[in-house]
Amino acid sequence: MKKKTLVSAVLAATIMGTTSVSLAAENMFSDVPLDHWAYDAIAKLAEDGIIEGYGDTGFGGDKAITRYEMAQLVAKAQANQENARAVDKAAIEKLQQEFDSELKGEVQNLRKDVDELKGRMSWYGDARVRYLFNKKMNGTSDNAGGRRTQFEERVRLGFWAQIDDNLSVDGRMKLENTVDEDDGWGQARQNFNQYETADAVYRNQGKFGIDRLSLTWDKGDTKYRIGRNETSLGQGLLWWENPIDGVEVEHKFGDKVTAKVGYGDTAAGGWYQSNLWTLYGDVKVQTSPATSITLAALHNVTNLSHYGKTDTNQTVYKPSGGQIGSVWIGGTEYPVWGSENGIGSFSTETYSWQDSGYKMNQISLGFNTQLAPKWNWTVEGVTNNVAGMNGEAVNKHGVWSRLKYGNLEWGKANTWHVYGEYFALGNASMDTIGWGHHLNIQGGNATATSWGDGARGWGIGVGYQIARNTNLELTYYMLKPYDKAAAAFDNYQNVGYAALSYSF
C-alpha cells in the first residue's frame, strides 16, 4: 500500500486546487482499481523524479482515483519525458496508450479554454506613413499662403475584450508625428515631435494619447456606449470613424433601419483649441441589398473658442507734448504720448479666450449603392444652418460624390480599386479646421475666426493591396475656391498624398 499512498500524494500535489475539484464534482466515482498496474508505474516515475512535488496531503492510500485524474499524472510525466531513463520512457509510453482518450480530452479542454479566451479578448493595430502636399490648402494662386508639405507617421495599438455577456470594452492608443515639414515660405524644415510649439500641442503630436476607450452594453437590438466612442455619421461628410467623448445609443429597427443618437465633445480628436460639445444623430435605411440611404445631423451646442489678441486704445491727461511717461499694465510697460490739446494716448494688447462664432449645425442626406459587381457610387449633400463671422459671405451648402471601380479587399494581396471624386463645398458647409470627415482633402481653408473659401473641383485616387493587410494609396486633386469672386484668387495649388498603411 506504500506505493499507492505515494501515488495519492503525487495526485494531490499535481491536481489539488486546480481542476481536480471541479472534475470530481462531475465524476463522483473512482474507476481506476487500487490493484491497477498504473499505480505502480506512477509511483516508480515519482521515485525517479519524473513526477515531482509530492508530500503529505491527506490522501488515503486506500482511495482509488478516476481515470481522468490518472491521465493528468501521465501528462505531467510526458512533459518531463526528455529527462527519463529508457525504462521510464517505456512506462510513460504504456501509460499514454492506456489513458489516450483521457489525454486527448484534456488537450481538447485546454484548446476549448484557449479558444474561449481568444473569443473574449483580442489585440489589433495599424501603422501608416504618409506624404502630403498642400494638406491645409494654404497654397493659393495669389500666393496668399505657402503650400505646406510634410511627412506624417502614425501608429495605433488597440484591444477589445468581452468582459461580460452583454458588456465589452474597446480601447486604442495612438502616436502621431509630423516630420520634415516645409511651410512653403522658405523657412527651415521642422519636426513637430515634442511639445515645443503651440501648433504641436493642438495637433496632438509626439505623444501617446487615448484614441478610443469605449464601454458598450449590448442589449439585444440596442447598444449603449459611453467613453471615447469612435463614431460615423451618414456617408462621412459630417463625421467618420473619429472619436467623440460622451454617450451614444444605437438601435436596430428590424433588418433595414438603424438609428443612433449621441452627445459628446468633438474636440476629442485633438484638432481644436477648446471643447466643442455636440448633439448628433444618424439614420440608415437599407432599401435593398445593394443600396443604403442615410440622414444625419450634427449640432455644436457650444461655439468654438480661440485664444486671441485684443488691441485696446486708452487716453490719459498730459501736461505737455511728446512722450510724457509710461503705464504698467499686466506686467508690461506701455509708453504714453502727448498731443497739443493736453490728451495723451496709449495702446495695450491683451490675450484671452474668445468666442469665435465658428459652429456646426449640419444636416446631410446621402446614399451608397453598388451599381454592379465592380462599380460603387457614393453621394452626400450637406447644409449648415449658421451665421457669418466678421461680416463675411456664407455659403452653407455642399455636395460630394465618389464613383469607384474595382474590388479592393484589405486581407487579399493584388486587389485594387480606382475612384474619381467631385466636390462643391461652400465655405461654411462643413468643418475644415478639423479632419473629422471622410474626405481625402481638408475641404477648405477655414480658421477659428473665418469660414474661409470652401472648395470646388475634381480628384482621383487609387488603392492597391501590395500584400495582405498592406495598402498603398495615391490621390491627386485640382481645386479652386467655392466662390472665386469672394475669395479673390482663382485656384488652390494642387492637393494630394501618398500613403502606405499596414494593419494587424
Strand and helix layout:
Elements: H1 2-15, H2 20-26, H3 37-47, H4 67-79, H5 86-98, H6 100-120, E1 121-133, E2 149-164, E3 167-182, E4 190-192, H7 198-202, E5 208-219, E6 222-233, E7 239-253, E8 257-265, E9 277-288, E10 291-300, E11 304-317, E12 323-329, E13 332-337, E14 343-358, E15 361-372, E16 375-384, E17 397-406, E18 416-425, E19 455-467, E20 470-480, H8 484-487, E21 495-503
Antiparallel strand pairs: 1-2, 1-21, 2-3, 3-4, 3-5, 5-6, 6-7, 7-8, 8-9, 9-10, 10-15, 11-14, 12-13, 15-16, 16-17, 17-18, 18-19, 19-20, 20-21
Domain SLH: 25-88
Signal peptide: 1-24
Keywords: Signal
Helix content: 10-25%
Categorize the overall geometry.
elongated
Number of strands: 21
Helix tally equals: 8
Question: Structural class of the helices, strands and pairings?
Answer: alpha+beta
**Main sheet characteristics:** 16 strands, antiparallel, barrel
- CATH top level of the largest domain is Mainly Beta
CATH architecture of the largest domain: Beta Barrel
At the fourth CATH level, what is the homologous superfamily of the largest domain?
Porin
Predict the CATH topology of the largest domain: Porin
Signal peptide: 1-24
Domain SLH: 25-88
Pfam families: SLH
Protein name: S-layer protein
Could you explain how this protein is built, in words?
By secondary structure, this protein is an alpha+beta fold. The chain folds into 3 domains: 2-98, no CATH class; 120-303 and 359-503, Beta Barrel (Porin), CATH 2.40.160; 306-356, no CATH class. The protein has helices spanning 2-15, 20-26, 37-47, 67-79, 86-98, 100-120, 198-202, 484-487, and strands at residues 121-133, 149-164, 167-182, 190-192, 208-219, 222-233, 239-253, 257-265, 277-288, 291-300, 304-317, 323-329, 332-337, 343-358, 361-372, 375-384, 397-406, 416-425, 455-467, 470-480, 495-503. The longest helix has 21 residues, at 100-120. The two termini are 58 Å apart. 29% of the residues are buried.
